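Hi everyone,

Forwarding the result from last night's run.
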Amino acid sequence: MAITLDATLDIPGGDGKGKFVKLDKGDNIFRFLDAPVIGYLWWDDNKVCTRVKTAAEAPDNVDLNYFWHFPVWMDDEVRYMEIKQKSVLKQIKSITESDPGYKDLGEYDIKVTGDGDGKDRRYTTVPLPIKPLSDEAVQAWEADKEFWEPEKVFETGIEVTSENDDGLPF
């Protein structure tokens, strides 16, 4: 029996974007849509990621990474971001503490610029001017919000990221 494909089969091109994003080289501009889920993660020898809410829940013999996982408005769509880079997390926290106008992460975009490659990549984090979230973003988040289940990040067997050769999530 021959197995053939229809000659008119059209395979759509990918735009390289998925729902899950990582901080990349260059400018990464995003808006927090909800509070981050905070926890710790580690990778086992089989490259399986486990996430827990507290460091005390992890075995003693693993290399723990602190993370934030949260929905964002980025590239004109709702996406989900996980950040492990402590320098970026500290800079975001500092922004919220340094000026009362920037306390609410949902009121402004954040620009994180990555320079360098792999483990040598360094990030600079700055807040952009405070402005309302666009109507398009509000409507998109309203449509996606029902699917945002923060606690699922910690469920066994739920894989929201994968580790790649640069050691960054996704």
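The chain has two helices and eight strands.

Cheers,
N.
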